[in-house]
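User:
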Amino acid sequence: MIASRRASVLPGRPYPLGATWNGAGVNFALFSENAERVELCLFDPRGRREVERIVLPEYTDSVWHAYLPDARPGLLYGYRVYGPYDPANGHRFNHHKLLLDPYAAMVTGGIVWSDAHFGYRVGSARADLSFDRRDNAAGMPKCVVVDPAFTWGNDRLLHTRWHDLIVYELHVRGYTMKHHGVPPELRGTVAGLASPAVIEYLSRLGVNAIELLPVQNFVDDRHLIQKGLRNYWGYSPISFFAPSPRYLSRRDLGEFKTMISRMHDAGIEIILDVVYNHTAEGSELGPTLSFRGIDNKSYYRLASDQRYYVDNTGCGNALNLTHPSVLKMVTDSLRYWVNEMHVDGFRFDLATTLARTNDNEFGTHSNFLASLEQDPILSRVKMIAEPWDLGPGGYHLGDFPAGWSEWNDRFRDSVRRFWRGDGSLPEMATRLTGSSDIFDRRGRRPRSSVNFVTAHDGLTLHDLVSYDRKHNEANLEDGRDGADENYSWNCGVEGPTSEEAVAAMRERQKRNFLATLLLSQGVPMLLAGDELGHTQFGNNNAYCQDNDVGWLDRSNLLDTSGDLFEFVRTLIAIRRTHPVFRRPRFFRGATTADSPLKDITWFTPDGREMTPDDWNDGGRRCVGALLSGDTGDRFISLQGYRELDDSFLAIVNGHDSPIEFTLPSTAAVAQWIEQFDTARWAGSPTDAAFSPGTPFTVADRSLVLFAGGAPP
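Assistant: Predicted structure:
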């Protein structure tokens, strides 16, 4: 029989929420505005047996709380919350269900699925209006009381300047599962990510920020488990403070903190992909795992018929950030990851949902956006929006406030279409120069645009040039999932090929995409593995492929020569060495006092400056961009003011035939020194010199970069 109370239970305090160890005991506090009673359930060290239930004795300002003076870190617990089960009025309390603490800093175990996890009788004719009395504790993860102490030493947030960032998006598990430099027992974990071999590789490549796919605790959805699949990406959250236990080699938060500390030592920032727009509890027919059973009416955005949920996310529900306590939970979570875990920033999944107001409209002054802007901690870290959701009027690229950066899918699509052969030259030029048409307002800068050609959601770079259509058969969804239009081109053959001409064009196209990305204004984001030829075999939605499809296998890579890696490394070195490719301000087409050149000048193949008629010529697909070495960036560093950079000429040829391009003549340039040519890359940069006015043959579908040598 489970004990229902203990003698040493004190009232405790309503703040902070969660389970807080103060060195003498543990304070437990749980928000629930509409509950009638809350029980704290304690478990044996293995989490298999509930050993005690304690009624939280105090209820203050919608918070239930107690203090256990004899509780210690490592204690496993959960909650049972009593109240009305009245879905028609928004209430779904069911005390038969063990619930996770929304503020738990650590969770152990995973969900063992059964019908007992649902608050209603699965299969009942009354659906979610029925009531289920089965206990689900045996199949539930358990919360863990933690001691947050950690010796950080001199570690602190790096605060790398936005326009100096080179972001590398990776998956903790997929990146390390088959990495031969990671000890086998650490593969798939943040300890593996902290391995010297991984950090040395990232440093050698030259990236200075990694964006981790979701690491906050998430659920393997039941329908995936039934198919023999798993939630690989992690966009099904259930805990916003706790890292997923699958990413920890042992029950120790210090492992995560050590990884961040080692990355910081290498000059690499950590950006977390966070999912606060919805939870794994889904629609009214979803399970009761935490928020739904704690206070459904407060935590979720409900429709006018309160039985149902407003679903702007396509995942069945949306968190109700118009409720002060829910907004507080999200901001508390963000501050926790900054203060306690030292992360440098966040990428917000479906950020439009977070910024919706009471009338479900997107608002630049919504509670969420305003709360971050005024917060003394969060306003100083990096914030990146995925600026869309699936709700009404959900696309808001360029509409987020000053201080934010945004995933720019217009860059992705424009660049893909240009190199495929059906894109617009003016559109391509606008994306190359920072997308001023989208972001140049309210004092925003080019860094507002996070540029990417590939990301976790979609084809890898190798697949982008190898497949004309998606191949998602392994997802077992009959091809319904994943985008149908990827603006990809297989270069003549669908999938793997032994045809040398096709393979050569694919490699050239990869270099075109990478050069465009890393030489464009804005913040570039690389997808991990693209620099190595990683393939997902045409799957453009590998969210459930926790296997060889999703994992990066370095022993089976298509770029065995290392040429592509060296090309990316060369591009990153050029970008990091030359601030002309990461200007802090938009181009204006004007000269400065320090340079006779305009900040940017566009040239036709015959060596003259582009005119409006040239830009309106729909058949034109070749242009040269001359970038002045005066970037206007006069920030003070330890070395003093930054000196003027070299001027550069980038020529893009999107035609399917070579073009004779007359290298521009200007008094500021004595000779043009070739840096690389995507059509003639041989594993290392070139340094051939050409006089201004010299005709240069630009190969079909290629990009050539020249540095301008100044007159003596």
